[in-house]
Amino acid sequence: MQVYMQGLQGQLPSLPVSPEALEQQALAHLSQKAAGYLAGMDDTMQANLRAFQHWSILPRMLRDVSRRQLSTTILGMQLPVPLLLAPIGVQSIIHPEAELAVARAARATGVPIILSTAASRSIEAVAQELADTPRWFQLYWSKNPDLNASLVRRAEQAGYSAIVVTLDTRLLSWREQDIQNAYLPFLQGEGLANYFSDPIFRQALAQSPEENPAMAIRYFIEIFLNPSLTWDQLAFLRQHTSLPIFLKGVLHPDDARQTIDAGMDGIIVSNHGGRQVGGSRAALDALPAVVEAAGGQIPVLFDSGIRRGSDVLKAIALGARAVLLGRPYIWGLALDGEAGVQQVLQNLLADLDLTLAVSGFSSISQLDASLLVNERPAA
Ligand code: FNR
Predict the structure, then answer these.
(1) What is the DSSP letter of 376?
(2) Per-residue pLDDT reduced to its tens digit, 183-226
(3) Is the ipTM of this complex over 0.95?
(4) For ligand 1, atom 12, which residue shows the shortest CA distance?
(5) Is residue 136 pLDDT above 70, yes or no?
(6) Where is the signal peptide (predicted)?
(7) For residues 289 and 318, what is the distance between their CA atoms, to the nearest angstrom?
(8) Which residues are tagged catalytic?
(9) Any residues with Cβ below 6 Å from ligand 1, and which?
(10) Which mutation among 272, 280, 307, 329 tests ligand 1's pocket best, with the greatest number of atoms within 8 A of CB?
(11) What one-character DSSP code corresponds to residue 84?
(12) In a designed cystine with 98, which of 5, 29, 92, 154 is the match (CB 3.0 to 4.6 A)?
């Protein structure tokens, strides 16, 4: 109501409310290279979005929804909303204040952050902006095990409460726009704050990264791509942290079972927003089988295609405990820095709260598959 009242008083939203219009405006505002980096394989991105349309909400009427509950608990961690900000690296190519602006918006709205290894600001600097806002750290598993352990240790010390290991980016995939634009931000030193500030990374170099950035970037390239990483190496991480470990990028139910066998604590179903495996299955279509394979033993989270409140409800009804918001907050960042991210988050949370209510539910914990109808034509 507050939002509608503001509109009636002439206070129009400063950013487009519809995610499609927001995206269009943000991409037009960014350089061709930055916009290309945000892109993915068009067919896979579209499949991610289309998958939500295969499910419809069947609302219930005349239930008391005057008080609503959006909070949730995952492995004993209290989340104010069933939403976290997905790890998105190199935000300095989007806005000069990068992850710091996002952290301030997260703090203002209470939405937890998952910070990328490839952030443009360090683990510690982002933690300082976040104050007591919940935060997790996403690890790209490099070829230097001591560096991995060091990043995790720094995250623990800076108050991050879970580690997310991204599985789908052991190699950078065939990214048409980046290849066309001859662009990879890391080669310009973007997104390397956590490496350059790390004592183990610095130790491995003959000179400091500040003195000789080209050499530091060469070392980063040498260790970042890690196609020989396999399941058995997860034991190393288990030994080096007592924090819960989530594996991000699981799509196959057998990989969900292997996640449990490897002693991991949670799964994030994701296809990296269609930026890794071209032609991959839409992430939402992969969710039910992964949830079934996890069998309630470990929590399953979801990303890739969350744009609206109804998308959040659908993913939760299909078994996700919470979802990660990806590109939409980056579009807000591109257009108006901290205020832009804050507006995107406020809109999404208001949309989620209202859609929950008008669907006839007062708590996200009540949602299950009975909320949904599968609209796919029978084969
Ligand atoms: C990502 N994503 C990502 N994931 C990750 O684990 N570490 C990272 O550093 C990044 N970086 C990154 C950069 C950009 C530009 C994008 C668009 C995505 C993937 C991200 O966490 C998430 O899985 C997707 O963004 C979800 O898809 P949608 O909802 O954004 O389409």
Answers:
(1) S
(2) 999 999 999 999 999 999 999 999 999 999 999 999 999 999 99
(3) yes
(4) 88
(5) yes
(6) none
(7) 10
(8) 272
(9) 37-38, 48, 86-89, 116, 118, 138, 166, 248, 270, 272-273, 275, 303-306, 326-327
(10) 272
(11) E
(12) 92
CA distance 54 to 174: 28
What's the 366 CA to ligand 1 centre distance in angstroms? 29
Smallest CA separation from ligand 1 atom 18, residue: 88
CA of 273 to the centre of ligand 1 (A): 6
CB 259 within 8 A of CB 27: no
Instruction: Report how far residue 224's alpha carbon sits from residue 144's, in angstroms, rounded to the nearest whole number.
Output: 9
Distance separating alpha carbons of residues 235 and 219, to the nearest angstrom: 25
Question: Residue 276's closest CA among 41, 38, 37?
Answer: 41
To test ligand 1's pocket by mutation, which of 169, 275, 276 has the most ligand atoms within 8 angstroms of CB? 275
pLDDT digits (tens, 9 = 90+) for 56-69: 999 999 999 999 99
Dihedral sign (CA 227, 299, 296, 241): positive
Tell the residue nearest (CA) to atom 19 of ligand 1: 272
Taking 70 as the threshold, does the pLDDT of residue 379 lie above it? Answer: no
DSSP reduced 3-state for 337 = helix
The pair of three-digit structure tokens given for residue 377, joined into one six-digit string: 């034509």
Cα-based angle 170, 88, 17 (whole degrees, multiple of 5) = 140
Phi-psi region of 106 (alpha: psi -120 to 50; beta: other; left: phi over 0): alpha
Beta carbons within 10 angstroms of residue 198's beta carbon: 22
Please tell me the distance between residue 379's alpha carbon and the centre of ligand 1 in angstroms.
33
pTM above 0.95, yes or no: yes
CB 249 within 8 A of CB 272: yes
Mutate to test the pocket of ligand 1, among 88, 140, 171 (most ligand atoms within 8 A of CB): 88
333 closest CA partner among 94, 31, 21: 94
